[in-house]
């Protein structure tokens, strides 16, 4: 694993092979998910999954870009086929808190914070 310089939230990006993670914590959680997948507890692990919160729209002739929440990981538990949406957090920004509320309202499910 190669670790790069810190950003403004004091996390260090980490490379594993050709995969870049936003933090060592996120990288470690990915390893945990891969182990769970190997023993058959979960399946279909995905990284950086976008969820639309507000679509693109126009107002007074001006186009307003869509708003998305990008989950760090999603996976499905094999026991009950339930989708899990996971965000590995070191610091909860105000923007994240707002997007979390919009996500939970629109998709009627919680974001699991690690």
Written description of the protein model:
The protein has 114 residues and is of the alpha+beta class. It has a single domain, classed as tt1808, chain A (Alpha-Beta Complex). The chain is built from two helices and nine strands; from the N terminus they run E-E-E-H-E-E-E-E-E-H-E. It has helices spanning 24-38, 94-107, and strands at residues 2-6, 12-16, 19-21, 42-54, 57-59, 62-64, 67-77, 83-87, 112-113. The protein is globular. The two termini are 21 Å apart.
Topology record:
Blueprint: E1 2-6, E2 12-16, E3 19-21, H1 24-38, E4 42-54, E5 57-59, E6 62-64, E7 67-77, E8 83-87, H2 94-107, E9 112-113
Parallel strand pairs: 8-9
Antiparallel strand pairs: 1-2, 2-3, 4-7, 5-6, 7-8
Shape assignment: globular
Strand content: 35-45%
The second-level CATH architecture is Alpha-Beta Complex
Count of helical regions: 2
Could you list the spans in which at least 5 consecutive residues all have pLDDT below 50? Answer: none
The helix content is 25-40%
CATH fold annotation:
tt1808, chain A
What CATH first level would be assigned? Answer: Alpha Beta
Main pleated sheet: 4 strands, mixed
Whole-number count of domains: 1
Could you give the order of the helices and strands? EEEHEEEEEHE
How far do the termini sit from each other? 21 Å
Count of distinct strands: 9
Q: What's the gist of this structure?
A:
The chain is 25% helix and 44% strand. It contains two helices and nine strands, in the order βββαβββββαβ. It has a four-stranded mixed sheet.
């Amino acid at each position: 694993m190669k670790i790069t310089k810190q950003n403004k939230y004091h996390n260090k990006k980490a490379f594993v092979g050709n995969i870049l993670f936003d933090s060592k914590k996120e990288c470690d959680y990915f390893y945990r998910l891969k182990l769970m997948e190997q023993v058959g507890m979960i399946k279909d692990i995905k990284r950086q999954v976008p969820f639309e919160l507000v679509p693109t729209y126009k107002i007074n002739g001006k186009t307003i870009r869509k708003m998305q929440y990008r989950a760090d990981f999603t996976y499905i538990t094999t026991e009950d086929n339930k989708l899990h949406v996971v965000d590995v957090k070191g610091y909860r920004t105000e923007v994240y808190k707002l997007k979390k509320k919009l996500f939970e309202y629109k998709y009627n499910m919680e974001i699991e914070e690690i």
